[in-house]
Design brief:
The chain is mainly β. The protein is built from seven helices and 39 strands. The chain has a single domain, classed as TonB-dependent receptor, beta-barrel domain (Maltoporin, Chain A).
């Protein structure tokens, strides 16, 4: 805690000095030019209904469409790297295997970060986590990041670290076409087309795209095709319908890890697994409607279906032994009705929401040998039912109180069959958990507030975590769901239209945190862990042409008891920060500069903290864009300093062997778009 206080004093001092400098610069150069960079009042949906950001009890970051355009990012995880309190770990540099960590969960972060697309859950029921490639960045209108588990009441499972809601584009205005093409290092090329607009009460958005790259490393190729459609219809003033659907098809290489010895004898671009690869097919559709009434409230119902098929070929990794081919399919059906009443009570603002979430997932996987003969087949079903209620009430004109409760039950059915008949499994498991949140928001200025919240969150084990595959197939019935008690306090302060700052302190006491124990080749529960830290961010318009943002997070994730007492959770950096500058050279040319820093962290599997840490790193990216009428061209340079680094690493604490996943060095890209 002393370290936390010292860090807080240091960065608050730096923040105040920065504010003074920016304030002086702003006073010296006032302007009313149309090209000015300005900070906007942001409306978000952390409570499954629209809310002004400074009225929420959560630490929230919003990435708007302009910020997406300004970035060098080709994928959503790349975009998230520079955001407050978000740690991204990319295995191969092509975005196919990527994890996003909120609040310091390390290796288990994919299972503790809930990801939504237009409010639809996209986390899988197994340990594969989120397929970030299923939604191309070009389809995204904005992204809302709710850091911390305050969303657990409304969203339930997987929201222990936070919630990321990806909101896709919708049509408006006259019909318009957008064509984009990109080319760059490692034979990267990408093309896409989108048609959007509206006609009377119907809004539409269609898009199609394809991309390919040989990748930075050998056997890190990536090829993908995407199709998407989104239709919104206002049937009558009180009734609206919506439909969306998407298809994603990809194939990619799996170059694997490199050890210290490999890096000495081979290059960072090498791969020991030149034939390992996988293919994905991902299809979904979602249908919903909203019935509005000023007197009786809004009734909202959504139905969704998703099918994901993945074929994985570990042809070299298994070295000629075992059964290396896996063909899996996951079908997920979701039904999520909710009722919202936004109506004053006793002359005070009040927002009430209640709902029910039903999800059924059917997971099937067939395992083949090198001769393509079926060896085993597995069928796992999971049904989750969650009920929630929450109310936000203005006790005073500027003081809001919020409270909510959720009950969720998860039931699993495991069915495993070996072709030889020597290994069979038929087992049912079920469990239930409760979540709550309560908080206060004091809006001390019209667009500034302080908040305090306390909550309890949970996470059910993934299907793979329950499974034990050696020496024979069984279900670990001793595995418990994870739960945590969480405390958070923060300030969202807007100095003026050109300068704002957010500051958050958080602490999480996690019970039965789920993890993989390499010593026993099974998943287990830690005794207790503790996650605490500080998050601070600053957004400013220094002058009429210069915009600036910066953020820093200090995250201390440690074991609180047991054999690893006071040790640091692996793969969680204590320090992380980003700085970005936007410079409007004139009305046609814009320059953007971004630097990301991630501190050192312990390797995966080093709960004992016995080995040295994986090195920290700092990268610098830049782009310059030129806009003339309907044409926009962008030249990008990524990793300008040519940093050699890895975001992910594992180790064997018995032998001391460490392995790395090297990421791309300096690389370039050129993108052009034309809209008419």
């Amino acid at each position: 805690m002393i370290i936390l206080i010292k860090k807080f004093v240091l960065f608050v001092t730096a923040l105040l000095l920065t504010c003074v400098i920016l304030g002086l610069a702003f006073a010296a150069e006032q302007s009313n030019a149309s090209e000015e960079i300005s900070l906007e009042k942001v409306v978000v949906t952390p409570y499954r209904y629209e809310e002004v950001i400074h009225k929420s009890i959560s630490a929230i970051t919003v990435i708007n469409n302009q910020q997406i355009k300004d970035s060098n990012s080709k994928t959503i995880p790349e975009l998230l790297k520079s955001q407050t309190g978000v740690t991204v770990r990319d295995f191969y540099g092509n975005g196919t295997k990527t994890t996003v960590d909120l609040r310091g969960f390390g290796e288990q972060s994919p299972l503790n970060t809930l990801v939504l697309v237009d409010g639809r859950r996209v986390n899988e029921i197994d340990i594969s986590g989120v397929d970030w490639a299923q939604i191309p960045l070009g389809q995204v209108e904005k992204i809302e990041i709710v850091r911390g588990p305050s969303g657990s009441v409304l969203y339930g499972d997987n929201a222990s670290g936070g919630v990321i809601n990806i909101i896709t584009k919708k049509g408006k205005g006259k019909p318009s076409w957008l064509f984009e093409t990109s080319a760059g290092s490692y034979d990267m090329n990408k093309q896409s087309a989108a048609l959007s607009g509206s006609y009377e009460n119907l809004a539409y958005y269609f898009n199609a795209g394809r991309e390919s790259t040989h990748g930075f490393r050998k056997n890190s190729f990536y090829k993908a095709n995407d199709l998407g459609i989104k239709i919104d219809s206002q049937i009558e003033p009180e009734l609206s319908l919506r439909f969306s659907s998407g298809f994603h098809d990809s194939s990619y290489g799996l170059p694997g890890e490199l050890s210290d010895a490999d890096l000495l004898n081979m290059s960072r671009r090498s791969s020991k697994y030149g034939d390992d690869h996988a293919t994905d097919k991902d299809y979904y559709f979602s249908l919903g409607s909203t019935k509005k009434s000023e007197d009786t409230g809004n009734l909202d119902v959504d139905f969704s279906f998703r099918r994901r098929e993945t074929d994985t070929y570990w042809l070299v990794f298994f070295g000629g032994f075992g059964n290396p081919v896996y063909k899996s399919r996951i079908d997920t059906v979701g039904i999520t009705p909710k009722y919202i009443l936004d109506k004053d009570i006793f002359g005070r603002e009040n927002n009430f929401i209640a709902g029910f979430d039903y999800y059924r997932s059917d997971y099937m996987v067939d395992n083949f040998d090198y001769s393509d003969d079926l060896q085993s087949f597995t069928d796992i079903n999971k049904i989750s039912k969650g009920y929630y209620i929450q109310d936000e009430f203005a006790v005073l004109k500027q003081l809001y109180i919020l409270g909510g409760y959720r009950y969720e039950k998860a039931a699993y059915e495991f069915d495993y069959n070996n072709i030889s008949g020597s290994d069979l499994l038929d087992k049912d498991v079920s469990d239930s958990k409760k979540a709550f949140n309560t908080g206060l928001v004091y809006k001390y200025l019209s667009d500034s507030s302080a908040f305090l919240n306390m909550s309890r969150s949970f996470r059910f084990p993934a299907t793979d975590e329950y499974s034990i595959v050696w020496p024979s197939h069984s279900v670990n019935t001793e595995l418990k769901p994870q739960s945590s008690d969480n405390y958070e306090i923060g300030v969202k302060h807007r100095f003026n239209d050109d300068l704002k700052c957010d500051l958050t302190f958080f602490m999480m006491n996690v019970n039965d945190e789920l993890y993989y124990d390499y010593a026993t080749y099974s998943n287990r529960n830690y005794d207790k862990t503790k996650h605490e830290g500080i998050e601070i961010s600053l957004d400013a318009k220094a002058t009429k042409k210069i915009g600036f943002f910066g953020n820093y997070s200090y995250t201390k994730a440690i074991f609180a008891g047991g054999v690893y007492n006071n040790n640091t959770v692996p793969m969680v950096p204590r320090n992380k920060g980003s700085i970005g500058i936007k410079y409007l050279l004139n009305d046609k040319i814009t320059c953007n500069l971004l630097s990301n820093y991630v501190g050192e962290r312990y390797f995966i599997n080093d709960q004992a903290n016995a080995l040295s840490k994986l090195n920290g790193y700092a990268t610098v990216d830049a782009n310059i864009s030129y806009k003339y009428k309907s044409l926009t061209a962008v030249f990008q340079v990524n990793n300008i300093l040519d940093k050699k680094y890895s975001e992910y690493g594992t180790c064997n604490t018995t032998t001391g062997k460490k392995t790395y996943y090297p990421l791309p060095e300096r690389n370039f890209a050129l993108k052009a778009s034309f809209k008419f």
